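Ticket reopened. Same input as before:
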Amino acid sequence: DAKTTQPNSMESNEEEPVHLPCNHSTISGTDYIHWYRQLPSQGPEYVIHGLTSNVNNRMASLAIAEDRKSSTLILHRATLRDAAVYYCILDRGSSNTGKLIFGQGTTLQVKP
Amino acid sequence: GAVVSQHPSRVICKSGTSVKIECRSLDFQATTMFWYRQFPKQSLMLMATSNEGSKATYEQGVEKDKFLINHASLTLSTLTVTSAHPEDSSFYICSARDHGATNEKLFFGSGTQLSVL
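Engineering reply: fixed in the latest deploy. New output:
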């Protein structure tokens, strides 16, 4: 399974944008880039995913490098509720085993 | 949206007893479900893939006789921790993929905190 690399932790001020980076230099052509986040004592929650083009949804934006070896999750205005561990994961979907392997993720702290 | 329900959310048991955790897909069918374990301050570790109507596939190092998985229907998978010991205390999380959705994203249960005394 291809691996992702993320910073262990990041800090942000409330209502400011946050850019969470992820490196995935061994990504294959069929790998989707998924982002999940986990609040304390809860199961992970889907945030966003993409394949090649940048993606936007109500939670965040995903910027994917042209060579697909890196991506950035963008939270446009961080709130205190966005404090969580963010996981960047490569997913081949059910066409493969369908399982997701989690890395260490980035712990985001949001300061008021 | 699709929801995965996990029960119980918290369980305390005595050493040597068995504990069953249920994972249900509420509005979609899941031929495959995944079970993860998470220790404090660590990431999720995949334990096994639960396959409806067939045997589960366990990750390397996970004892299949200790962590019994049953996936008898398209909406229910159970994980039974047999003869639990204090070192089995952990946060257990299940997940399922909605194959009917366009993006096949994975949905997660809210987790079960197991404490073995």
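The first strand of chain B starts at residue 4 and ends at 7. The mean pLDDT of chain B is 91. Please confirm and we'll close it.
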